[in-house]
Specification:
rod-shaped, about 60 residues, about 85% helix, mainly alpha
């Protein structure tokens, strides 16, 4: 009966954890950037809506005269 030594694969485990954490970090960064872009787009739409209401009220006032 031969005694086999257990191979040391801790390097692969550390590399695997490193890859997993890197992928999660990239995903979190992507979600943060998407949220920032969404907030900016929402602000743009709100400002366009306000501008559209002002323009509409001016044209309605001009039509009444």
């Amino acid at each position: 009966m031969f005694l086999e030594t257990i191979p040391d694969t801790s390097g692969y485990m550390i590399a695997g954890f490193g890859v997993c954490f890197a992928v999660m970090g990239i995903y979190i960064l992507s979600m943060y950037l998407r949220g920032a872009n969404l907030k900016r787009d929402a602000e743009m739409l709100e400002s366009l809506q306000v501008e559209n209401k002002k323009t509409k009220s001016k044209t309605d006032t001009a039509k009444k005269k």
